[in-house]
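Supplementary Methods. Inverse-folding protocol.

Structures were first reduced to a discrete structure-token string of length 214. This string, shown here, constituted the complete conditioning input.
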């Protein structure tokens, strides 16, 4: 009886030892799986960061190409407006004529000598995309035109600022104009509320219509 009890105790001890070893093996497997999980997370972060960097690089390149294309397209439009000002600006002024660089330089140099503008303001006006002179309501009128493929609020603000500067150099009325292929609705409303004419792909939008509606 005692021998059987001893054998039973030994068997139970072996089973307990086996269970303990199984538990340790289970813990080792859990530790291995946890390490594999951490390695997987690390690799996933590396892959995610790599693709994020690639995405940012491609985005920057696309933005550069978009900006470059917009600049080139704007320059092409400037040339078109200079070649045919009487066609594009006919709803604003009659007998529209592009003011050439030499003529503008003479005008601004005289204004500078009279103290009407300073040197920085002279340079600002010389950077205007296009200045047009014509006849409006029976008198000479000037247009300061900012050209862009897609017109934005900066173009509008630039046209306003430069038209105000030119108004100090001449005695006739000066109008601010933005011209382009496309203009978001909110920018169009902003321009018209600010008193700026908008030319879009052959269509002319007058700020005077907004004034009459208000």
């Amino acid at each position: 009886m005692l021998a059987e009890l001893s054998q039973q105790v030994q068997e139970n001890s072996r089973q307990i030892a086996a269970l303990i070893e199984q538990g340790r093996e289970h813990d080792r497997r859990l530790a291995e799986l946890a390490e594999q999980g951490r390695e997987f997370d690390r690799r996933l972060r590396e892959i995610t960061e790599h693709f994020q960097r690639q995405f940012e690089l491609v985005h920057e390149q696309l933005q550069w190409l978009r900006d470059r294309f917009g600049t080139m397209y704007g320059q092409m439009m400037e040339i078109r407006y200079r070649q045919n000002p009487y066609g594009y600006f006919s709803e604003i002024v009659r007998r529209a004529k592009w003011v050439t660089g030499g003529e503008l330089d003479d005008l601004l140099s005289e204004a500078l000598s009279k103290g009407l503008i300073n040197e920085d303001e002279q340079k600002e006006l010389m950077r205007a995309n296009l200045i047009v002179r014509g006849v409006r309501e029976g008198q000479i009128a000037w247009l300061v035109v900012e050209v862009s493929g897609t017109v934005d609020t900066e173009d509008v603000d630039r046209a306003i600022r430069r038209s105000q500067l030119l108004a100090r150099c001449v005695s006739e009325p000066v109008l601010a104009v933005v011209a382009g292929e496309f203009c978001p609705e909110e920018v169009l409303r902003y321009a018209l509320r600010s008193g700026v004419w908008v030319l879009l792909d052959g269509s002319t939008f007058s700020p005077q219509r907004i004034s009459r509606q208000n």
